[in-house]
Design goal:
Low-confidence stretches: none
Radius of gyration: 16 Å
Helix content: 40-55%
Largest sheet: 4 strands, parallel
Strand order of the largest sheet: 2-6-1-7
Distance between the termini: 22 Å
């Protein structure tokens, strides 16, 4: 993002809604780009993938059967989640426990797909994501999969990042 574009966005939308939705596959640079855009535009930041990872951690810690959709949905509804919305400070807490590093472990990466494809859990996390966007007066960079099509399809800026080896 060029400095010129940043200044233009700042001048045209001060105090107005500015949701920047950044989508793309794993490894495409969503997190790096999203955090930098949020920093430069002085917007809140949300890593939606971290929410799915936190739910996966919560399910594994509580012994929830990831093949039991109803149980995963219940876990999503009761998930005591705190997640940073600042591009300067990253943290994810579940029930007061800092799981920021734990949710990036291989065991979570291997299991997160089972949670993310559970319809009831997705519905609950999307509800929470939209709630956070509104809480920040629709001034947020939101990154993750399906952001531009499902979570924030009416975002003022929608980006799809791709990358090749």
């Amino acid at each position: 993002m060029t400095q010129e574009l940043i200044e233009t966005v700042d001048v045209l939308r001060p105090g107005k809604s500015l949701v920047v939705a950044i989508d793309g596959p794993s490894g495409s640079g969503k997190s790096s780009v999203s955090k930098e855009v949020a920093r430069r535009l002085k917007l809140a930041y949300l890593d939606t993938g971290a929410m799915y990872r936190a739910l996966t951690w919560f399910c594994l810690q509580s012994g929830t059967d990831l093949d039991d959709g109803a149980a995963v949905e219940t876990a999503a509804e009761t998930l005591p989640l705190e997640i940073s919305t600042s591009p300067q400070e990253e943290y994810v807490r579940v029930g007061g426990h800092d799981v920021t590093l734990a949710i990036r472990e291989p065991a979570i990466s291997a299991a997160v797909s089972a949670v993310a494809t559970t319809l009831g859990a997705r519905t609950e996390l999307i509800r929470r994501q939209r709630e956070l966007i509104e809480k920040h007066h629709r001034r947020m960079v939101v990154e993750g999969r399906d952001i531009t099509t499902v979570v924030a399809p009416h975002a003022e800026v929608r980006m799809l990042l791709t990358a090749s080896e």
